[in-house]
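User: I'm preparing a small set of examples for a lab meeting where we compare how different chains pack in three dimensions. I only have the primary sequence for this one, and I'd like the structure in token form so I can line it up with the others. Please keep the answer compact; I'll paste it straight into my notes.
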Amino acid sequence: MAKGKLSEEVKTFIVQSLACFDTPSIVVEAVRKEFGETITRQSVEGYDPTKKAGSNLAEKWKLLFEETRKTFLEDTATIAISHRAVRLRALQRMAEKAETQGNMVLAASLMKQAAEVGNAYTNRRELTGKDGKDLPVPVSPVTIFQLPDNGRS
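Assistant: Understood. Below is the structure token output for the 153-residue chain.
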């Protein structure tokens, strides 16, 4: 389908999806599912101002792309997987499925990964003093000795 025949809503969806680093193939499938429109990867690339195919993109779409990308990069809080609880729940589901299927090696690996994400399994040690305060810095006297020259310089 040609660019001119797409609705403003579909064009906006395409530009915003590309700005969020979705590939043209992913966008084609998403447009098909979301709007029932069949488009090509090449036509989608025309909406990406960072690509040669999108070099002649209208200014309003370039501005939307730039604004969406900036917001996307700054606002990781809206991305579910950026939250520890979401990652742990996903790892739990995967570990349970692996265990149910008898894949104990994968289940153990996923459990270890979940423990690391949850800070329950780590080889890092945090040493603190009383009530979580910093440890006192040990004062060790340092003596510097002048070594004899022995004729070597």
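A couple of notes for your slides: Residues 84-100 form the longest helix (17 residues). Residues 19 and 65 are 5 Å apart (CA to CA).

User: Perfect, thanks.
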